[in-house]
């Protein structure tokens, strides 16, 4: 297996040579919040799959629901009005779940990038149907991550995910993120920084012309960009600016929906109702590839009432509304609510963040500690606290390996260590993660 993994498998977000130089761990089993590798080593999965395995790896009701649906109807398309009973039930449950956000319609997809693509398309089309065909541009945040499809890559804030594929979609502009550790304003106060970023957004809208902009897309807490929670005034400020200018607000909640922030959604955490919301990941907890774009009544009605023919939908996936995915999502949602996982995310998130802050005091290498909003945390590692020069790649690789040997799988993204464990983990699991990280950081300090 190790030989084939290195030679025949091109890992996403990796150079084909990477796995030959540094063979990755091969995970063969998952149970609860723990994973076991090919060599029999068991660790706490502090990555939660890829921010998605909120309920852990042994969720019996989900496995049973999948098996039952496979027996009953393994697939039928929901194109152009055919349907299946599982997806209808799911859409009703999602309407109830997202009622506080005012999101009532679900457009089903096969994953996060698909959800982003659909949301961005719907936004343009919404304006077209309303006779504002000139609204074609998109705004987003500089540290934002919105998947790998061409529209998503165009709005991605991190240049590393864009430049290799340019020219991408024209008309995408990126606003400074409310990232206190590094920002163009040299502002360290979160509230003042939020105001500066909001002013930058207003300036960009004025420069582009509001009547040319379709949508602003943002993650309520920036995830892959390094877990960057904004000040509480930021997202409400964005909402206000978008409403004022007739710009749709798309919340990319592929990571944050279903409890990760300690609230059921990131938008709810900040008290905001977006016009569209992208979901995926924890909607099926990794048990099936699936996603949904949640749409407000106001947006959906524009499509429903259209008499121009411009609202014809040319978007959808073979696996949109897949009955097995829908059955998995129903079971996940029931478990998510039964266990009230958001509460454990808040409590264990606080424990994790407090422990990371203690590590931050102990090690010079830790330039910034981010978290405080459920179970998404990060350490930013620097070679020098004054210059904030990122730690070298070799050291961060060592840190990862030592932490793994000490009992926790963490995710490395640039010079960040990212933590997004299952929401069901216990106090003892959090301590295991913190102890393992302590050893990992010590090894390169
Ligand atoms: N949006 C966000 C906020 C994400 O974090 C991700 C994936 N990490 C995506 C979109 C893309 O999702 P997927 O990998 O399922 O296509």
Automatic annotation (TrEMBL):
Named cofactor requirement(s): pyridoxal 5'-phosphate
Keywords, sorted A to Z: Aminotransferase, Pyridoxal phosphate, Pyruvate, Transferase
Similarity-based family: Belongs to the class-III pyridoxal-phosphate-dependent aminotransferase family.
Record-linked PANTHER family: AMINOTRANSFERASE (PTHR43094), AMINOTRANSFERASE CLASS-III (PTHR43094:SF1)
EC id: 2.6.1.77
Organism of this sequence: Thalassovita gelatinovora
Signal peptide annotation: none
Molecular-function GO terms, alphabetical: pyridoxal phosphate binding; taurine-pyruvate aminotransferase activity
Name of this protein: Taurine--pyruvate aminotransferase
One Pfam family it belongs to: Aminotran_3
Lineage: Bacteria, Pseudomonadati, Pseudomonadota, Alphaproteobacteria, Rhodobacterales
NCBIfam families: PRK07481.1
